Amino acid sequence: MKSFSAFVDKNARFIFPLPAVLAILVLIVAPVVTNFVLSLYDYFVGGRPVYIGLENYQRAFGDARVWNGIRNTFYFTFTAVPLQLVLGIAIATLFNRDFPGKGIARTVILLPMVATPVAIALIWALMFNPSLGVLNYFLESLGLPRSLWVAQSNLAIPSLVLVDTWQWSPMIALILLAAMQSVPAEHYEAARIDGASGWQSFWHITIPSIRSAIVVALILRAVDALKTFDIIYVITEGGPGIASETLNVLAFKTGFQFFHAGYAATLLIFLMFTVLGIAILLNVIRRRV
Amino acid sequence: MSALASQASQRESAAQARARAQRLKLLKNIGIAALIVLTLAIMLFPFYWMILTSLRSQVDNVSRVPVWFFTPTWENYQNVIARNNFLEFTWNSFVIAALSTGFGLVLGLPAAYSIARFKQEGLALAILVARLTPYITYLVPWYLAFRSLGLIDTYVALTLTHLIVGMPLIVWIMISFFENVPQDLEEAAFVDGATRIGAFMRVILPLSMPGIVAASILAFIFSWNQFLFSLVLSGPNTRPVPVAVFNFISYGQIDFGGLGAAAVLITLPVIILTLIIQRWIVTGLTMGAVKG
Description:
The structure holds 2 protein chains of 2 kinds. By secondary structure, chain A is mainly α.
């Protein structure tokens, strides 16, 4: 027993993380490796795998539905994330002062990002309903024409962006608010004495001081937006038709509705590299700012 | 005389300027207050609408003009709970979240301690990459493996997969906690003859309790909210609430009130837990990039 604990003490750096490392190897590394192998086979769940080399990849490059998925993924991400960044900065600036109920306000903006996404998606689906939804009632009250929201092909992704923005702008705001609060008050004091306007000190003091927090927020949001699944699948299932079908949703359908495991694995490899590539790219930017 | 007059008018215009500045400031404050209220109203509206929908009768819910004032009814809740096995699904969600959080702690705490003490940044990075990779990447191989092992629709499959949601969170939150436990305390324990495991169990963990509670609650919430894994790997015996509610909408006519009630019932536990650990939510969502 004594020698056992001596052994543990000496090798603590290997033994302590061992269970977690094993879990990661079995649950994460092995599946990723399996995907590479699967992508070389024509394999339907329950059927016999047939080795076809790189045919799945060739097929994917010529598959209009894959390109549609890629386009939708980027359209969704690069509309949602910049919008959320602007709103996040605005909300953070708005909240970066003392006002009665500040604590409650901060709690309130946490709610969209912690609430169960399926529940959120269902409620938005009800609000989007073209004939009975409350959003059209608001539009009409403002004298605006009614909209079909997610029921219309070219509005499906913008409507989903609206949901994602409602859900995640607060996270960017809270990340930036934390950064803003650590900017020393003397900097603003000095600027005021030099006669800087509020706008000037925002551009020349606040933004430069929080730029690394901005990049961190962008990395996290971009990575999560690229792989958004819950709200898209619950609200539109990629529809109407394939108008809001992202790569993520297409891979899901390929694997679990068409049961074409080999082809799904190919799409997943592409999705994984896209997400990790963008994360690495943004991380390089982060080191430089 | 004229000098006096100009002095007086100067004094007056200074007072006017001050009054104007004050009025401007008041106006600015009203503007800011209005913007804050507007922001909060937008953030809260879907929740408000969820609650209203859950308390309205079906007739009011399908009215073309929204019904804002009505006598609330509990009928929707009664229907959801009685007719749709809601309690069973809730129990499934609870079991999966509790088990995966428990295993997440058993695996994650020693790993986080090791990363903090021995500066194993590579391991920390590997766990971060696991969080960044799209979850769906793992799902096809998991599905095939669990299928051939006969583990689809078992708590085993769901607990193991939800572990991948909770464990990285636990590790990343706890690293900074363990780094803040003074090393002297640990060394004092060694001098008293404690082993590494003994010091970890009796000194480090008790001192890190607030972090462990926050990390556990976060892992629980994330498992509770998980949809994708459960959608594929659960079945009649293990179906958790989000999947049950999703199936709810796939069948024919939509029962708005029922949906609202179900949405309230899934979200309520999460909101209560959030209120307890709100300081840690952003830390958890950002994998420690922002300290609570």
